[in-house]
Amino acid sequence: MSPTRKAHLDTFAITLLLACCMFWGFQQVLLKATVAEVPPVFQAFVRFAMATAAIGAWCLWRGRVAPGAAAPPGSWRAGLLAGALFAGEFACIYVGLQYTSASRLTVFLYSSPFWVALLLPRFIPGERLHTWQWLGLAAAFVGVGLALGDGLAGRAAGAHPLAWLGDALGLAAGLMWALTTVVIRSTALARVAPEHQLLYQVAVSTALLPLLSLALGETWSWDFSAFAWASLLVQALVGAFASYLAWMWMLARYPATKMSSFVFLTPVFALLFGAGWLGEPITAGLVAALGLVAVGIVLVNRKPAAA
């Protein structure tokens, strides 16, 4: 039975989205710290291998059959495509973190809502945004840009010489994230259980990422520090399993364009965690950015007037 879709975000969805965005903001800083010890694509492979095992166990515990059993026609093709896009997204993120800061890559990654807003209405007219919602997206984007610009001011001299490559990979990751959302919402994959949608993504990533890691000449080693193992477990079980499963569950029930507006909070949380972990200052510009993001979220989730 297909889940009942809602036209607007309710309190539960907003709370869950805030929790996910807070963790994802922390995760960006965590990934950057772990890349210094574990090769990036190999790290992503280990993460998604753990997540595949966790989601498979979840499906067995819930009594869910395998994704291919009694699946809607064509869903497996869409699942493989979504998985390939998902793998590409995270390959770009992990590799990009070698060349640019976590905060800077995040602002490009979270261009995803704009791609979703531009592309999804071409397939699902009901996802079209109204004028005030576009204004909300613009306000949120300005807020994120202000926060990141404020946090990065004065650091250009110490940037990696290939920082432009990290920025480009972040932008590519944002586009792939948006395309994954479009595939999930506009194909037969939309009628597949959320845990099976996520299983496609992490399982295909587990199959593709080691090939990419070897092609890039990364050295594989399992002699990690306690911090690296803890990081991988948090990335896999909280990030790739719990938070992404929650995101997939919400995609099946709430408007994707309105959900996507919340991801503008993630870069702000990344800066906050960066301040707590790395000692970066919280300035008036950051406070102003938080206000703009809040205004953007209110506008994007504003209900249209009754006819």
TrEMBL record:
- Give the residue spans that cross the bilayer: 12-30, 42-60, 80-99, 105-124, 131-148, 168-186, 198-220, 226-247, 259-278, 284-301
Question: What protein is this chain from?
Answer: Multidrug DMT transporter permease
Primary subcellular site in the record, as a coarse category: membrane
Membrane topology of the entry: Multi-pass membrane protein
Q: Name one GO cellular component term.
A: membrane
Q: Name one Pfam family in it.
A: EamA
Family classification: Belongs to the EamA transporter family.
Under InterPro entries, the record lists: AA-Vitamin_Transporters, EamA_dom, EmrE-like
Q: Which organism is it from?
A: Acidovorax temperans
Q: Which domain of life is it from?
A: Bacteria
Localization of this protein: Membrane
Q: Which SUPFAM superfamilies match?
A: Multidrug resistance efflux transporter EmrE
Segments forming domain EamA: 12-147, 165-301
Question: What does the UniProt keyword field contain?
Answer: Membrane, Transmembrane, Transmembrane helix
